[in-house]
Amino acid sequence: MMHPNALMLAVVLLRNLMLPFCSAQNAGFVKSPLSETKLTGDTFELYCEVVGNPTPEIQWWYSEVNRAESFKQLWDGARKRRVSINTAYGTNGVSVLGITRLTLEDSGTYECRASNDPRRNDLRQNPAITWIRAQATISVLQKPKINASDQIILPLDATIKPVTLHCNLTAAHTQHKDSFWMKNGNEIPNTRADQGTSFTSFKISKPRADDSGEYMCVYTFEKAPNANATIEVKAKPHITGHKRSENKNEGENAMMYCKSVGYPHPTWTWRKVDGNSYKDIDNSTGRFFITSRTNYTEINILDLDITTDPGIYECNASNAIGNTAETTILRVRSHLAPLWPFLGVLAEIIILVVIIVVYEKRKRPDDIIDDDEPVGPAKTNSTNNHKDKNIRQRNTK
Ligand SMILES: *[C@@H]1O[C@H](CO)[C@@H](O)[C@H](O)[C@H]1NC(C)=O
Ligand SMILES: *[C@@H]1O[C@H](CO)[C@@H](O)[C@H](O)[C@H]1NC(C)=O
Ligand SMILES: *[C@@H]1O[C@H](CO)[C@@H](O)[C@H](O)[C@H]1NC(C)=O
Ligand SMILES: *[C@@H]1O[C@H](CO)[C@@H](O)[C@H](O)[C@H]1NC(C)=O
Ligand SMILES: *[C@@H]1O[C@H](CO)[C@@H](O)[C@H](O)[C@H]1NC(C)=O
Ligand SMILES: *[C@@H]1O[C@H](CO)[C@@H](O)[C@H](O)[C@H]1NC(C)=O
Known about the structure:
Blueprint: H1 4-23, E1 25-31, E2 36-39, E3 44-53, E4 57-63, E5 72-73, H2 78-81, E6 83-89, E7 93-99, E8 108-115, H3 127-130, E9 132-141, E10 145-148, E11 152-153, E12 163-171, E13 178-183, E14 186-187, E15 193-194, E16 199-204, E17 213-219, E18 227-234, E19 238-242, E20 245-249, E21 254-261, E22 267-274, E23 277-280, E24 288-293, E25 296-301, E26 311-318, E27 323-333, H4 340-369, H5 375-380, H6 383-396
Parallel strand pairs: 2-9, 11-18, 20-27
Antiparallel strand pairs: 1-3, 3-7, 4-5, 4-8, 6-7, 8-9, 10-12, 12-16, 13-14, 13-15, 13-17, 17-18, 19-21, 21-25, 22-23, 22-26, 24-25, 26-27
The structure holds 2-acetamido-2-deoxy-beta-D-glucopyranose (6 copies).
One 2-acetamido-2-deoxy-beta-D-glucopyranose binds at residues 240, 259, 261, 294-295.
Transmembrane segments: 339-359
Keywords: Cell adhesion, Cell membrane, Disulfide bond, Glycoprotein, Immunoglobulin domain, Membrane, Neurogenesis, Repeat, Signal, Synapse, Transmembrane, Transmembrane helix
Organism: Cyprinodon variegatus (Sheepshead minnow)
């Protein structure tokens, strides 16, 4: 008789042995690396994704151009740490091979190998049988040389004179196709120049702050990546929009903002103008919130305080070239403010009533006096006397 525990152990062992055979699935590529042409100094990345059960192991191999069968395995940190390999094993295996600061010698065939064959690392086995393979060819070309003009600082304060940016393609692996200009990552329309001309220029006739930015001349090639050079055009920030004043009631929230153009993008600060000097924003109450983006800043003040918050606020945009500031007047009205128009009307009514009453009081005796009283003394009499007479006269009627 077998001990029940031993029986259970045997069953578990048997199941574990059988499992790979029951649901095993050979390794297969979901995503295989793609061939690319690159320029010296640039970076490339190759992706490889495999399925299989158990999850396949992934390796990267390399062979030089025209030596297709002399593959060597690549390791993370190889080639003076220019090679990186990042692999994650989940239900699928995913691996990314990256090589930075490319040289001409990095050209060649890169191979992603995957296997979940239990015999895959057995040296007596032929790897061609136990591993599946996917290849990509990387061609590295000498980066073309461009002689570009230096960075420019726009002279906005003095006399405005045109500025011209230029590029000259002085060396290239092949004849280029055409060229164009970009500003801040967008192509500038109507700047395409074709083949023959390796010299290209871009003129800014009337430079303004918003003409500053990152300019780029781009040369295109038939079967190779674009070549480009960047020219920075800098200007001091120019504030294009802000609130002149903000009027709020105490307890409400206030929002003031400033917008700018000018490259490099400014850093923003807010201050309070105190006569001829400045005060930093006092945030001890925690009611001040400043949010700034590259060319926009906003200050929010919550739960306005009528004694401390009103005043002149200044936004200050500052970059390497200079700085600009604009002010906003914040007025805070008391809670009662909305009642003022009503109180005004009320006051008017009261005054009117008083005037009418007084007028009436002065007028009536005169009308009646004609009857029997002499005019002279009545006019000089005190009002009290008038009243008495008035009442008497009425009674006699
Ligand atoms: C680039 O061009 C300028 C004139 O546009 C010239 O003075 C300079 O020598 C050139 N530099 C190179 C490296 O060719
Ligand atoms: C552009 O570069 C070429 C080759 O270096 C040179 O011969 C040519 O004079 C340059 N053109 C200009 C306008 O600087
Ligand atoms: C400019 O050149 C760099 C480096 O070669 C490249 O990575 C980038 O894609 C190029 N940009 C354009 C717009 O051609
Ligand atoms: C003011 O204080 C609040 C609360 O502590 C904080 O969240 C906010 O960032 C501060 N604002 C400024 C401008 O420092
Ligand atoms: C501010 O910069 C963003 C991108 O950085 C741009 O889309 C936007 O038009 C700019 N706004 C102004 C007023 O220059
Ligand atoms: C803006 O801020 C900068 C740096 O904090 C300062 O040097 C400059 O005086 C300020 N500019 C104005 C106009 O207040």
